[in-house]
Amino acid sequence: MEALREEVSDILYQQAATNVLTGRRFTEFTDDAQLRVQTKSKSGLLVLPHAGDWGRYGLQSLQVAHQSEDDTSVRIHYSTLKGGIFDGQIQWSVAQTPAGNVIVQVQLWIPKKGRPLKKAL
Question: What is the pTM of this model?
Answer without folding.
Answer: 0.68
